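[job 4471] stage=fold_predict status=RUNNING
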Amino acid sequence: MGGLKDELLKAIWHAFTALDLDHSGKVSKSQLKVLSHNLCTVLKVPHDPVALEEHFRDDDEGPVSNQGYMPYLNKFILEKVQDNFDKIEFNRMCWTLCVKKNLTKSPLLITEEDAFKVWVIFNFLSEDKYPLIIVPEEIEYLLKKLTEAMGGGWQQEQFEHYKINFDDSKDGLSAWELIELIGNGQFSKGMDRQTISMAINEVFNELILDVLKQGYMMKKGHRRKNWTERWFVLKPNIISYYVSEDLKDKKGDILLDENCCVESLPDKDGKKCLFLIKCFDKTFEISASDKKKKQEWIQAIHSTIHLLKLGSPPPHKEARQRRKEMRKKLLAEQEELERQMKELQAANESKQEELETVRKKLEEAASRAAEEEKKRLQTQVELQARFSTELEREKLIRQQMEEQVAQKSSELEQYLQRVRELEDMYLKLQEALEDERQARQDEEMVRKLQARLLEEESSKRAELEKWHLVQQQAIQTTEAEKQELEHQRVMKEQALQEAMAQLEQLELERKQALEQYEGVKKKLEMATNKTKSWKDKVAHHEGLIRLIEPGSKNPHLITNWGPAAFTQAELEEREKNWKEKKTTE
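[job 4471] inference complete, writing structure tokens
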């Protein structure tokens, strides 16, 4: 019953739309009364003239929309419909209401009657949604059926070209566009009007009237046993036979059910191509025009009985339902695919946003790391410049000391000259021997003092060299830290947070190195102060020469005239030479 209701609604929709003259979606109550009365008449439903007024009692006098009319239509008409009305009469009534408004005025190759049949076929093949359209797949199916009925060959390439030029903004054609497509002969070139009309009628009989097969055959009478030509029409549950194909004079029906059967008979009584239809209470002998027709009728009747046993609908209705289910399945798969594509696109966009955020964070972190690295390198350069300055100053001090050593060497030559003079005086002044011995004792005492001072100076120098080594180690440590930082900078892309923490640790170590440098500097200043104090102590013993700063690492001697400018080995050599000269004299 649900399928019948859907078919009725399609035709009624055309009628309602035709009554909506201003395309507002509403129709006046007076027009709906006439439409309802006509529907009740053709559908053989008792008409209640007061029901419509009571249904819209709360509404004003204005027009009624399609949605407002539907509850009344369902309740008072469609729910009461039985399968005992004339479907052709019902469709013709709805067709009459909408044809004048919608049928094209252009000349067509088909008559208005053929257009009506195409309109009914459209309602049968159209989709179950409004506004009604027929999709390209059903258009192809219908055109193939018409071409086959006309005895022509199907032009698939021509239809594909038509589909390419199809308006993408529409999902299909309306009933009137379909009528115009068939009526303009685009897919029936070379066919006359009569051939097209017969093809439309054949397809109409099959799809709408459920005519599975029809044609002339001879039937044997039950009483007179004579053979008479009749026009047979096979439908899903009945075989009707008429005097002629105009179907005006019906002679009888053969009711089919699952208990019926069809059998082939041998030729007899001068009749050929015989077959027998056995029903519950009667048996019918029929003669076809040839063996091919006989086999076709036997196969068609056998297939019909088999469908009755299975309870299946006619083949064309079952095929239509399969096509609709296939389209629904494809549409659902397409929607699911689109949904998945949207989800993937949304996920991709989300991932892109996350990656962009991560990239920006990495760029910011890299920028900060680069800035920190720049500051660190700047500090390193400043530290190295400071160390270089200290080294230059130390070189300058050493150069000054070398100049002083050269000056002392000159003074040493003068001193040696003076010593030679003194040696001459020593030979002449024997009486000064005791004084010289006393001087030697004094010199020994001063030598010990000088040795002690030299030891202090050596320890101070060792300490200075130790701090110098510490300073070199600090520089090497800084270089090693620089290499470690370079390695860490390469690894920052993998562990940026860890690198930042290490940078902070390195910054702390750098500060500690600076503090150590400041401590070394202070100690150097203290050592310098101590050296100055040592110079003051030695200043009392200056004689012919002054103490060379910072002095040789070898121990110095003290003479009667102050600190000596030569070493112990030189003194022993001179003493040896003096004793040899004294012996020779």
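[job 4471] summary: The radius of gyration is 64 Å.
[job 4471] exit 0
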